[in-house]
Each structure stands twice: as C-alpha cells, then as structure tokens.
Design goal:
Layout lengths: L2 H17 L6 H8 L3 H7 L3 H24 L5 H16 L8 H8 L6 H23 L5 H18 L5 H17 L10 E2 L2 E2 L8
Antiparallel strand pairs: 1-2
Helix pairs in contact: 1-2, 1-4, 4-5, 4-7, 5-7, 5-9, 6-7, 7-8, 8-9
C-alpha cells in the first residue's frame, strides 16, 4: 500500500467511524488527508470504493484477531471467551461508536449496493467462524449457539452507545459464558402462542 493510499484510508476510516458514512464528504477527506483530488481518485475511483475499503480493512482486522486467538493453543471454550473479551474491550474504548458494519448497513440498506454487500460478506464469515468454534467444543447445537452469540454481540454493540458500557459488557460476557456452560439437546424451544409460552401460566411473561 502506497503512503498516500494508506493516509487516505486511515483518514477516511477515522472520519467515517466517528461521524458516519454519508455525512463525511470527499472534500473533507482530501483536506484532512492532505492529498489532491486526483490522488484520491487514482486510488479510489469513487466514494463507494473508499467505503468498501474501510469496511474491508475492518473485516481483515477482526479476522486477524480471531485467527490469533485460535492459534494460541487455548481450548476452544477459551478461544470463544477471547473473541467475546475483544468485543467487550472495543465497546469500552473511549472512541467506541457502535459496530462499523451495523452502522454501514443502516446507511446503505439496499442489498445490492457494494457497501451493503461488504457488510454481508463480513457477517457471513463471522457467523460461519463462530459456528465452527462452537462445533469444536463438542457440545450440542452449535449453530443455534453461534446465532445466539452473534445476536448477543449485535445487541451489546448497539447498547454500548446507549447505556453504561461496563454493564453492557458484563451482560454480554455472562451470556457468552451461559452458551458455553449450559446447552442441552433435550431442552426444546417452547411453543409460543401470541408471544407467550403455551406451557407457562398466563400471569407469567
């Protein structure tokens, strides 16, 4: 990566994450990065290309972090705990502004748009990886557990901007621990009727 491209991507990434994708214009990025318009368009033919590069860089960073956790020789349960702990660390960082991918999907809701597709690629990889990890634990129902983990993660990343991050992370990590310690194939999902467990007394919600 050339020095100019790296500076452009670093500048854009910082501004995009802090202020939003649509609100940060090309002129702002050029001025902040200290490059010419021609330099920007030589490396990124359009703003969409720059946004996709920003998300791709974020995706690669998360992949590297998960890969590092998997190669440290820890048990699979501890690898999952390490992934959860890294997410909790992000949420409690001073510059935290939510999940970059969820934020991007909200700004680019069209499933056919390159930015939205970059989000989907990342999320498909992340879910597949978490399914693999839960499968390696040897415990029942790895796919539902992985989906539950991703939902916990999404909720924590959203709530981390709205509530006390420490409490959000405590809840998220407790939920992760629950997925690791309590899974039984014999426990069935209850039938729901109008949002209520049909086996549950009507006074209990």
């Amino acid at each position: 990566m050339s020095e100019a491209r790296a500076r452009l991507l670093s500048t854009a990434s910082r501004l995009f994450y802090a202020e939003g994708l649509h609100s940060v214009g090309i002129d702002r990025i050029i001025a902040t990065a200290g490059v010419t318009r021609a330099t920007l368009y030589r490396h990124f033919p359009s703003k969409d290309d720059l946004v996709v590069a920003y998300l791709t860089q974020g995706d690669e960073a998360i992949r590297s972090r998960v890969s590092a956790a998997r190669t440290e020789g820890a048990s699979t349960d501890d690898v999952i705990r390490a992934v959860a702990a890294a997410i909790a660390d992000d949420i409690q960082s001073p510059s935290f502004r939510g999940c970059a991918f969820l934020n991007a999907a909200a700004e680019y809701p069209d499933p056919a748009h390159p930015v939205h597709q970059a989000v989907i690629r990342h999320r498909e990889w992340f879910l597949t990886t978490i399914v693999e990890l839960f499968s390696e634990t040897g415990k029942p129902d790895p796919e539902p557990a992985a989906r539950h983990f991703v939902m916990l993660r999404d909720g924590a990343m959203s709530a981390g901007c709205l509530a006390d991050p420490a409490l959000v992370c405590e809840t998220f990590l407790r939920g992760t621990e629950g997925l690791l310690t309590y899974r039984s194939r014999n426990r069935q999902i209850p039938e729901l009727e109008n949002g209520r467990d049909v086996d549950q007394p009507s006074g209990i919600r």
